[in-house]
Specification:
This protein is mostly helical. It is built from 2 helices and no strands. Helix 1 (3-23) packs antiparallel against helix 2 (27-66). The longest helix is centred in the last third of the chain and has 40 residues, at 27-66. The chain is rod-shaped and about 60 Å long.
């Protein structure tokens, strides 16, 4: 799975966890859903960072081969 697809999947999971938190009637369930949402958001952020870093490395490699 590409990093951008992984990031998109993680964002979708975070959105679902937020919706679950909003629908939860029990406080402990709501808190668990919010923690889950935070983890999914961090995973999405990390996937996006890895993707951006990979693009930079690939560009640097192309430039060094062109020299």
């Amino acid at each position: 799975m590409s990093m951008m697809l992984r990031a998109q999947f993680c964002r979708e999971q975070a959105d679902q966890a937020q919706a679950d938190a909003e629908a939860a009637s029990l406080d402990n369930v709501r808190q668990q859903c919010l923690r889950s949402m935070q983890v999914w958001q961090r995973l999405a952020d990390q996937a996006e960072r890895v993707h951006a870093e990979r693009l930079v490395r690939e560009e640097a490699t192309r430039c060094s081969k062109a020299d």
